[in-house]
């Protein structure tokens, strides 16, 4: 009986020297990054996002018009060498304002995404861990928020805030909060569902059978398995937040002038004369939103492909 | 050895595991899958207890509930006199290395994001059975024992075949030096030569470390080869239980007889009547009344529909649940 094992031994003795190709084995994360780097469209999106961020956060520092001073002498000018994208009705440089607006819009997108992800993950994790009544309460609130379509909900909150005459400086922060209020339920539901299904997977039963403690189960088995999904969803939700903010601001319910955002810049298209005669006022912010959201989505899709461990066999 | 001198390692008493069946919009519980329904058995130290039965008869559920990977619905499971389902969470956790489980599905039982070296070694470190420096060596040892190589340690599960994964699952269980192992069809994804290798490994471990197995399998010839005691399950209940030779040479229960008649006999001169069972096993949600087997039993009588036969002793440790014996 035992001879069969011994016969195996010479072939399978413990080799201390590993094959050369094996020494350089990379982790799953490194493999994913490599895969992502090979994805052209995703990288294009990524580069665009980086350039956009750099332009919005750095370029205005070097603009001669950064102060945004009103200069009625040069109001409503078409693009020229001095003002590449023309000027608005107060004589401010549109390009500078566009970049400053981008700073706000991108920040709103990023911060509200982070808030939604943190709230959604924590609540989703709590719901899936405790189940029962806690789960019921959290998920019913989430369902309630999700049954109302986002935009009407945001409009209602925005309108109430306008009634309350919240000072314009604070509106920025309030918009971020509003966006995370509509953003977290979807994430909480996703995280909860994912954690519940992971818990039923045999490898979590195996973790139980091995007697691993809760900390190890959570940090080495559960979280690493929802992280890829979370990263993808978070990335994609930045785009959604930017669009929602722009929509709100466009309707005058979001961030108010003089704080510029892409949304309230497009507001110019609301007046017929600006719409017809001064396209430099509203086309650039429109394009900026469009291109940024597309870039984020391309990058997010690339992430999704790169992070799926099941596809890494090939 | 007589039964009384053997040490009873695992005592299962009237164990039940029901899964609620939820239906409709409100997910109301409309019934229960009686996956394990009133099972009692004893596994002695050093036994290789073979559990056989059709797909869906509750073998895996019995194995899992036995090791408290599921909650039980009713009954008790004792390991060396301790009721496993009564222990606190942390007491149970400390006991885990002694009680291991080899999972049926080699794909879902390995975490896709953990290298297999870590997967095999993590419990050793967690239970303080080995230092961080030694762990690679121990993992390499056990991998070699299971017919794999040490450089496999750095790989992720998706880089392995089903058979290799199954051996990783075996390595992960035996590295803890357990007392009792539930092996849920551990050979199903392996080809024949590796099956033989793993069977030998199981035997060798048993001799060296006086391991005890609950070996779940579809394959009666493997069970006959490896196990010394056998239990036959039908729709969540044990219908026959006894020493291997007894069960194989004179099966008592009609269901066991039918199962065995389907196994090819090495000796062509011995003719065995093939008993063909008609129909599918009934749903475990609404099992037949009386003897659960009566819908398919060739010998069924009116009494079988009304009275549930008890698992009775028929001499030399051989039990069966049938009115006709
Ligand atoms: N988690 C679960 N929830 C609900 N029902 C379950 C669950 N696990 C098992 N069952 C049901 O319990 C019954 C027994 O399943 P089990 O997996 O124990 O059978 P098995 O004998 O191991 O079958 P196989 O040979 O196919 O592995 C089946 O009817 C199955 O559908
Ligand atoms: S009790 Fe009746 S139905 Fe059940 S196995 Fe025996 S003869 Fe068949
Ligand atoms: Mg099974």
From TrEMBL, chain A:
Which Gene3D superfamilies does UniProt cross-reference here? MetI-like (1.10.3720.10)
User: Could you tell me which residue ranges the ABC transmembrane type-1 domain spans?
Assistant: 102-300
> Where is the protein localized?
Cell membrane
- Give me the segments passing through the membrane: 42-62, 104-129, 141-161, 173-191, 222-243, 280-300
CC per GO annotation: plasma membrane
Q: Which residues form a coiled coil?
A: none
Membrane topology per the entry is: Multi-pass membrane protein
Q: Which InterPro entries match?
A: BP-dependent_transpt_permease, MetI-like, MetI-like_sf, Oligopeptide_permease_AppC, OppC_N
Family assignment? Belongs to the binding-protein-dependent transport system permease family.
The name this protein goes by in its record:
ABC transporter permease
Automatic annotation (TrEMBL), chain B:
Q: Which UniProt keywords apply?
A: ATP-binding, Nucleotide-binding, Transport
Q: Which GO terms describe its molecular function?
A: ATP binding; ATP hydrolysis activity
The segment(s) forming the ABC transporter domain are 21-260
Q: Which Pfam families match?
A: ABC_tran (PF00005), oligo_HPY (PF08352)
User: Which positions carry the signal peptide feature in this UniProt record?
Assistant: none
GO biological process assignments: peptide transport; transmembrane transport
The protein's matches in SUPFAM superfamilies, at most eight in alphabetical order, are given as: P-loop containing nucleoside triphosphate hydrolases (SSF52540)
Family to which this protein belongs: Belongs to the ABC transporter superfamily.
Would you tell me the protein name for this molecule? ATP-binding cassette domain-containing protein
| Organism in which the protein naturally occurs | Paenibacillus agilis
């Amino acid at each position: 009986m035992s001879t069969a094992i011994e016969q195996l031994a010479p072939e399978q003795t413990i080799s201390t020297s590993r094959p050369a190709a094996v020494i350089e084995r990379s982790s799953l994360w490194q493999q994913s990054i490599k895969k992502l780097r090979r994805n052209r469209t995703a990288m294009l999106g990524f580069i665009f996002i980086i350039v956009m961020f750099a332009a919005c956060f750095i370029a205005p520092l070097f603009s001669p018009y950064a102060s945004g001073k009103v200069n009625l002498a040069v109001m409503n000018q078409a693009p020229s060498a001095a003002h590449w994208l023309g000027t608005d009705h107060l004589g401010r440089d549109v390009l500078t304002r566009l970049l400053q607006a981008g700073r706000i819009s991108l920040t709103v997108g990023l911060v509200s995404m982070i808030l939604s992800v943190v709230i959604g993950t924590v609540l989703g994790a709590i719901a899936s861990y405790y189940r029962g009544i806690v789960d019921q309460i959290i998920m019913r609130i989430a369902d309630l928020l999700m049954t109302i379509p986002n935009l009407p909900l945001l409009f209602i909150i925005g309108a109430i805030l306008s009634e309350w005459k919240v000072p314009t400086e604070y509106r920025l922060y309030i918009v971020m909060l509003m966006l995370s209020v509509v953003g977290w339920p979807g994430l909480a539901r996703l995280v909860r569902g994912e954690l519940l299904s992971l818990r039923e997977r045999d490898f979590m039963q195996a973790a139980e059978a091995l007697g691993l403690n809760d900390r190890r189960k959570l940090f080495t088995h559960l979280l690493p398995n929802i992280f890829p999904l979370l990263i993808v969803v978070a990335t994609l939700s930045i785009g959604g937040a930017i669009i929602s903010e722009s929509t709100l601001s466009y309707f005058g319910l979001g961030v108010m002038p003089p704080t510029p955002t892409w949304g309230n810049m497009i507001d110019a298209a609301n007046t017929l004369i600006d719409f017809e005669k001064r396209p430099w006022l509203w086309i650039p912010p429109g394009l900026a939103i469009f291109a940024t959201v597309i870039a984020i989505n391309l990058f997010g899709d690339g992430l999704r492909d790169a992070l799926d461990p099941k596809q890494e066999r090939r | 050895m007589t039964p009384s001198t053997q040490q009873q390692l695992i005592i299962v008493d009237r164990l039940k595991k029901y899964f609620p069946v939820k239906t409709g919009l409100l997910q109301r519980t409309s019934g229960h899958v009686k996956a394990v329904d009133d099972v009692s058995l004893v596994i002695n130290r050093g036994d290789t207890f073979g559990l056989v039965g059709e797909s869906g008869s509750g073998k895996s559920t019995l194995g899992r509930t036995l090791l408290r990977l599921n909650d039980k619905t009713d009954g008790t499971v004792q390991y060396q006199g301790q009721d496993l389902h009564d222990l606190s969470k942390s007491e149970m956790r400390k006991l885990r290395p002694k009680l291991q489980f080899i999972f049926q599905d080699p794909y879902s039982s390995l975490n896709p994001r953990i290298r297999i070296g870590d997967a095999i070694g993590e419990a050793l470190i967690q239970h303080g059975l080995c230092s961080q420096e030694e762990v690679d060596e121990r993992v390499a040892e056990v991998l070699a024992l299971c017919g794999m190589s040490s450089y496999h340690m750095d790989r992720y599960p998706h880089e392995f075949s089903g058979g290799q994964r199954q051996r990783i699952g075996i390595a992960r269980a035996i590295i803890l030096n357990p007392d009792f192992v539930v092996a849920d069809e551990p050979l199903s994804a392996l080809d024949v030569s590796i099956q033989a290798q793993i069977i030998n490994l199981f035997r060798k471990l048993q001799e060296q470390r006086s391991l005890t197995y609950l070996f779940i399998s579809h394959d009666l010839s493997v069970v006959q080869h490896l196990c010394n005691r056998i239990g036959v399950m039908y729709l969540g209940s044990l219908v026959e239980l006894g020493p291997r030779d007894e069960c194989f040479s004179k099966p008592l229960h009609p269901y066991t007889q039918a199962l065995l008649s389907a196994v090819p006999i090495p000796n062509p001169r011995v003719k065995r009547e093939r008993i063909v069972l008609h129909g599918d096993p009934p749903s475990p949600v609404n099992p037949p009344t009386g003897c659960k087997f009566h819908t398919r039993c060739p010998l069924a009588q009116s009494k079988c529909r009304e009275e549930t036969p008890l698992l009775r002793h028929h001499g030399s440790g051989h039990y069966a649940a049938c009115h006709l014996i």
